[in-house]
Amino acid sequence: MRPASWEDDAFQSLCGLIGCELKGAAPPEITDTSALVPMARRHRLLDILGRVPGASPDVKAALQSQVRAGLRQVAALAAIIRAAQKRGLPVIVVKGVALSMLLHGDPCRRAAGDIDLLVPPGRFMAAAELLMELGYTLDPDGPPLSAMEGGNQHIRDLTFIGHGQRIELHRRLYELSTRLPGDFDILWSHRSDLTVGPVTIPTIGPVHLALYLLVHGHGHDWERLRWLLDLALLLRQPGLMEMLQQQARQYRVERAHGQALALIGHLFGPLPAFPVAGAVPARPVRMMMVYGMGMEPSPKTTTWFIHRLGHKWRDYRLHDGLGDFLSAMSRDLGTSVGDMALFKLPPGLAWLYPFLRPVGFLWRNFRPGRRERHPP
Question: Which domains occur in the chain, in start order?
Answer without folding.
Answer: 89-204 (3.30.460.40), 302-366 (no CATH)
